[in-house]
Amino acid sequence: MSRFFRAGRLGAFLLVVTVAAIFAPVVHAADAGRAECRSMPSKILGHPVAYCVILPRGYDTDTATRYPVLYFLHGLGGNEQTLLESGGMNEIEDLRAANKISEFLVVAPNGGRSFFINSRDGHVRYEDFFIQEFIPFIESHYRIDAVRKDRGITGVSMGGYGSLRFGLKYPALFGSVSAHSAALIDKLPRFEGSEDQTSKIARVLGGSFGNPVDPKYWERESPFTIVKTGPKPANLPIYFDCGTDDDFGFNQGAQKFHDLLVSRGIPNEFHLYPGGHDMDYFADHLPASLEFHSHAFGVAPASK
Questions:
Q1: Would you say domain 34-297 falls under CATH 3.40.50.1820?
Q2: What is the rounded average pLDDT of the residues 160-186?
């Protein structure tokens, strides 16, 4: 059984959940990779942004090699340490040891409650930060082969929304994209409520889409809209999956997103698997996207 996200179960959900931050032991094998957590300055956001990096085996000794990179986006309520604190390091090391993935960096920034977009009020320009500052910073401070083919992006829940959105909006930047239980909603439900209720819903959505939520802004930023109005991406491997019993009905949105991609002639690998929007589901299926990106990078795993 995978150790990723097995340390505990998710608690109550509002709209989009994240992986619980429960510490798991780190592998100490002689040839294991290592992780480090730091921060970088941001002029766009006006404050430092924390991030964690899982480095491949041999990174510190083989100083000539440059590696592919996979950006991991967390869910709502998570942060840059979500992947590490939930046992992701163990999962990656297990896959490396089993010769199922090649050596690449995994980089996880703190996205707060931003949905990884520029907020409706313009106060939190997270998309601008990620594209204009974060990626260049990471790829100039670590030995990364900074070319499209060797740059992938993935995420869960809110982060799945972000990864699909980034991958499809910037297909010249990313060479592969994946998502698990992405917060995909093809049409924002219409609702009537008190000012207090609408404010709470806006807070659940991170405030990124306005307070109250602006349906037009939601639609404009949606991955569905990007696919409908944007250019057809060329040579972009896409993988995403969702649980058939997703707590928020994201499985329905995922199916409609797959149907939209097919209608636009955009190749993609899509799966609906048994499960909900919870830790067990993420644990079972994250290895699939790690292997997917490893294959997209085109670097064979090292021999045992």
A1: yes
A2: 97
